[in-house]
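Two quick folds needed for the group meeting slides. Do the first one here.
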Amino acid sequence: NEQILKSPVKQFLFNKIIHLREGQNFIMIHVTTISDKSTLKVLEINRKPLSYIRQPLKIGVEKFRRISNNKKYLTDGFEDIFISVINTNGRFIAKQITDNKIKFDYLLTGDIVEKNSSIEIKISLVDIVTSEIFVATDIYTENIGNDISEELARKLIANLNDELPLVEGIVIEIKDEKGIIIDMGSNKNIKKGMKILIYNEGKQPIIDPKTGLELGWDIELIGAEIIKVLGKISYASLDKGSDIKAIQRGYLVITR
């Protein structure tokens, strides 16, 4: 029963972060006109948890560039808040770049434009090796308040997850000593430069003999990077040091 709009409008766009429960979820959107005509839209979403396989992407966060009409930044300390929020989901490990010894997968840069009635934040993920922009996204709001930074951080991270979807597939062909083909392409929002993990799920889980609880799996993870994307398939090249002989057709694949 949360009210999205404070006053009537003719045309608008909005976004809202909703935490989904495992299994079936229903989202109801109720719209009422000034003349009391109403309509109800129900969205059904079935959340199926993806594989337990994880190898978080390491992101180095640079200090954001700022442009502001205000003497004091409303988003002061935004980088710390962004890092704190993104590190809670387990998909990414983000740190400010203070130690050159840390090996990051990507560099994150950002721009914040603060005006009297709006805030816009743009972020880019830059490939550490090629220095090319891998993913770029932004967020804009006119809902300005003293505690706006965390909300903006969560929306940016939601956008980032959309741009880097966590999806699963299989190896459908082994091309050469370093190349494979997987059954995911632009239809699954796969992008050139994405990092993936290849593994075999056939082994049994490790069980605690005292409690009987599942502790994990003894699985070898093989890293690779997407080098070419087509409609329903993609080509990937194995990371340096990986052995193509350890991979077979039908092995599972998950994006990092």
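Then this one, please, same format:
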Amino acid sequence: MLNGVMTTTEAGKRWDKDPSTLRRTVLKLPKSEHGKSGRNHLVTEKGMLQLYGYTKPYIYSLILDMIEEMGEEGFAEKIVDLAYSSWTDSTDGVVFFDYETKKLDSAPMSNGDHFDEDNAFVELYRLKQNWLARSTPKKEDILTTEEQAELIEKYEEPDYLDEKQLASIDIDLGERMKNYLVYLLTDKGGMDDILERLKG
């Protein structure tokens, strides 16, 4: 899609509609919302939204656009940063996609709370308030072998999840936790789970 204009073939993929039927359907739109370029039938995004609205396949296509633009790792990093900024000991950090503005955002939410259906938001990721207790990372996921040795040398009871202990060897626990979450998204199937849920 370029500047909000696409071929009816692309529009068919984005809205899960038959392109040949779509070529006839777009003729119902004002002339400013459809046309031809050579042999290609064109339609605007605005025109498609007038016809079909924000369907699940269309929203899914917007997320894929964002992943393609940012790269999978960049997209995962953005999601984790947003989730972490809204996460607390008593609230989940929820990342959502606002499909009207085509932007990612986050909000703190209680466990079990969800967006109302009349909102233009789709939940993408939820960092649960008790995630650390439920999925404790291994120390090798957080620290290098050298950093583990440094912690053992410094403390009688080293704790690789202790913020103060790690800070004493110049490690920011928050940053390491974010890196670990990005790793879970990109290398352990987390991103596939997000896309599967959106598609389903």
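Slide caption for protein two: Residues 6 and 162 are 52 Å apart (CA to CA).
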